[in-house]
Amino acid sequence: MPIPHGPEAVLARVASRMRWADWGRRFSASVLSLSVIAAIAVLATRLTGLAPFTAETLVTLLGLPAIEAASWIGVGSLVIVSAAGILILAAAITLAWHDRPSVSEAARAIDRHQGTKDLFLTLTMLEGSAGIYQPLVARDAVARADDIQPARVVPLPLRRGLTRPALCLVGLAALVVCVPQLDPFGEVARADQTRTRHRTLQQQADRTRRRAEQLAKDDADAKNSLEVKQAIEKLKAALKKVKPGDQKLNQAMLLQQKKQLEDIHNRVNSPQLQRVLNRNNKGRQFGQLETPKLQKWTRELQRGSTESLKRELDKLKQDLKELTRLDDNDSESKQRREELTRKLQKKIRDIQSFATKNLDSKQPLSSALKRARQQLKAATAGDKELARKALQHLTETMDLAKQELQQLAQTARDLQDIEKSLQAMKMARKANDKGQLDGKLVENAKSLDDYRELYSQLMQQLGETVSEGEGTGNRGIGKGGEVPEDDSTRTNFKKELSKSVVSAGKVLLTLKTKGQSDSGDVKQAYRKSITTIQQGVSEAIDKEEIPKGYIEGIKRYFNSLDDAPKPTSPDTPANAPKK
């Protein structure tokens, strides 16, 4: 016999309230248990420092991988994260671990509360049973159903049920705020240092990606940048349109073009890059890479090319790939890894030295190489996860350095072509002052060299000279240079070459003679020897673990070898002024 409609609804409502009451009890118990576990964890980590209680460790402890705890999380936010994590985890445990009350359990609860002597329990058992009493039981249950109030049968005391979880969370918050973080074993400092390294590495990687995206928008493989190309083409078109009779109009046009080119020149130019392009690079620093390689890189940059530098970076990337494949388990791989690390450090240092000393310390290439050295240092810090990320970011930085070299070569070509344009314009202004500037003269010219050559011939025909720099006596159209010698003059000069070689090593024999020593080749050989020694010392500093406090003193000593004062004559007074 089915249960009548009235008693059935009462039983369903009582069962639902019983389910909510059971959920609340289990949720409160879960919050209490998790709070006790978290309190123990807070005390253990704060007092021992073995696992610093931070947002990251809390997220891991509570099993919330979706939350990324950032460095900006403070104490207040940490308390909120702790409470929210405990509540969420307690709710998940309760949903997975609770019972659904049956109709029979709801009937027993009603019988206990109403004192109906198992009337509703008997009603739930009428299904499939035989007996003439079934209609009587159903009639009595329907009569008593209207008097039953499910809220009184199963009360839900929310205020009392929430008090205990709230007190647990308040106690946990008090522990988080009041208990200081101790560090008896130094684990907290090491954890902070590791987090700082990871954060710094990520910031460097972000800067590298942003710069790479910026360079990807520019066509660095083209001969000139788009701005310079448009300015030069505009100048060429203007010079082909000038007419001899419009001197004032020509002058205004030339001044406008000159201002535009000078503005571009001032934006892309830097004093150090200009010094390299003008072949005025004579400085030498301690431990600088060998002179032939430096000179080769400088000569290529003067021609607007960085092919040798890019090949050096390609070799560096090959060594980097080999380094990532090596394992630290066996001694042979570990030894090879240390060797490759020293090799990479030296290569990056040499290229950075060239970029910093010969270009500009704030130049993007110098910044990229500086980040590369820091990333290589992080790769050897001992943290495997940090080393893996550092090597990955180092590869990206090397790709960026190659892009920077292409951009640098294009900038050098831009400067050279702008200067050629200004030189051609200066000669054009001279011709315009004489009323001889005619666009037909250059109507077949294509390159800037064609324009300069045609205007140079025009200057010779007009008997004009144009100052283009210091030159020899500040005259002429060329870039200056050495004054030609007259080989027809007869002299007693005898060209000889000494077969002796001055090199670093053990002195086998010394001879002392009286007289004035020769200058020139001897001094050059001496400086070459000093350079070799300084390179060896620089490599030894990188290879050996020398305390930082001694490095500067070692460098000053070996730098002083090249700046030794000249010996004075015995007849010269000690306080005589230097010439």
Question: Could you walk me through the main structural features you see in this protein, from its secondary elements to its overall organization?
Answer:
- The protein has 579 residues and is mostly helical.
- It contains 20 helices and no strands.
- It folds into 2 domains: 5-185, no CATH class; 194-451, no CATH class.
- The protein has helices at 5-48, 55-62, 75-96, 103-114, 119-124, 134-145, 150-153, 158-178, 187-216, 226-241, 247-268, 271-277, 291-302, 307-325, 331-358, 364-379, 384-433, 448-462, 521-543, 548-560.
- Helix 1 (5-48) packs across helix 6 (134-145), helix 9 (187-216) packs antiparallel against helix 16 (364-379) and helix 19 (521-543) packs antiparallel against helix 20.
- The chain starts with a helix and ends in a 19-residue tail after the last helix.
- The relative contact order is 0.07.
- Residues 59-72, 280-289, 469-483 and 564-579 have low confidence and may be disordered.
User: Structural class, please?
Assistant: mainly alpha
Shape: elongated
CA gyration radius, whole angstroms: 43 Å
* End-to-end CA span: 128 Å
Number of beta-strand segments: 0
Enumerate how many helices there are, as a single number.
20
Helix content bin? 55-70%
Number of individual domains = 2
Beta content comes to under 5%
Oligomer: single chain
Low-confidence stretches: 59-72, 280-289, 469-483, 564-579
What integer is the average pLDDT? 77
Question: How are helices and strands ordered from N to C?
Answer: HHHHHHHHHHHHHHHHHHHH
Query: How does the major sheet shape up?
Result: none
